[in-house]
Amino acid sequence: MVRTRTAVPHRRRWPFRLALTLAALAVALVFGITTATAEGSLGPHEARFDVTTDSTVTVDVGPLGTLQLDSPAPLGLGVRATVGEIPRGVTDVTQAATLEALGQDLDQYIAFFSGTRATIHQVLLVLVEDAARRTVGALVVLMGVGFGLRALLGRRRRTELGLALAPHTHQIVGAGMVVVLVVTVVTGSLTPATSATTESVAVSAVFDGTPLEGARLTGRLGGIVDTYSGQILAAYRENEAFYASATTSLTAAWAHWQRTGEPLVGPTATATATAGAIPSPESVASPQPSSSTTTVTTLLPTTEPVTIVLVSDLHCNVGMAPVIHELVELSGAQLVVDAGDTTINGTSVEEQCVRTFAEAVPDGVQLVAVPGNHDSSVTEAAYAQAGAIVLDGSVQTIDGIRFFGDADPKQTLFGQSASARTETETEAGDRIAQDVCDAGDVDVLLIHNPRVGRESLDTGCVPAVLSGHLHTRTDPVQVGDGIRYISSSTAGAQAGQATLGPLHGTAELTVLRWDPATRTFTSWQLVTVSTDATATVGDPQAWPTIQTPTSDATATSTPEPSGGD
What we know:
The protein has 14 helices and 23 strands.
């Protein structure tokens, strides 16, 4: 009698299928992680980032050599950054010779160096996203191959193979996983760019006390860094010390203002509190009332206000990031509003500036931004990816405030005249005014150029317009049927000077308070940081009450603001 083979029982199939599934998932995961890559920036340079398995963070600058750091990543993973060019848009301001241009770029390198944390965070985020995509792709391919072979073999042949291999399931799957994992790791880490870097090099003391402490330098890069590191690191440390001093000064100035306890008496209040010695916590716990005998009417809101910190024209001065963070913490702000020109030219390498400012906003505080004429779609995307709400021509309700905003109609490269993106200032102003009126019940129009917001104020469809652009503050003032507020530069921007490094001019920030009950601003409070790193906190000033114009002449008597960059 001929004995026939029967199919493998179902209860004996599932361990084999589970093992194959886990093996495929493991292989796909290892492949996805070890082959992940990302395009980004390193300082002012474009760069390519690749995951490696050598437990090292390596910065490859080509023939000059490498900079190496121990990787903080687990499981022996590392990253290799291949440094590319500096985009033309970052340095194409003058026709300086190469050495002169390098000298002029010193502050830019220092500022980008200060934002190392933001760069690492963004690179890791992009690499994780790419690894996930590659893992899913590899898993789909493996499953496709598996189902393809299954169909090709046919049911009868699969049964025969199943019966033959069933006793050796664990050994086959285990051996297969080992082989594939070894091949994947080898191919994922030994790329042409990394296979030659096997030498052991000493730790360089050049970077002690900096984010690159413990770095190892190879090739001619070590000689170059040794030669010029004194100048570079001195500038870096000067920059760090300046903004650390400014932050400390702001803390002292805010405590001094709290201790004086001046009431909010209206637009005539002009007292300011300049930083001095930091007072004890007991001295600022319960602000004392003013000693003035003048009877005044308080303008404090009857409901809990929404506190906003307004900044504008940051122009990549990442040194101000800790100052912004400190003011948000001190004021208890729920919102940070950026009125535009966060970058210099809106290039991809300036994404680091955007991320640094976004990370300066404390957890739980929302960042709202509108693009300026020095920003770009790259800037918008970087801000949105960092968690900011970027206004794009629609109403956004944030903490109960209905914001409307849109990008500046012009595009300006540093050192060049502005050109229209798609429409003129007048056309943009008319369109935005119509959109604001159509939307209805808009509380605040956020627009970088105040001239673009003039028509919206004249129509009476919005009670307040916040803007920047002019690097000079002269407001708040009534324009038409609303109040205009033009923020000065939070980077201390001065005409013809870079905004990176210690301040070249006074930087201004504004604390605004908004009453949810009346749906209006109640006060504005000016905070400044001077070129000597001292901070000043002004008393809150009453937000102007909108007056009904007595004639058309009165409604249009406010002069059009001039200037801007």
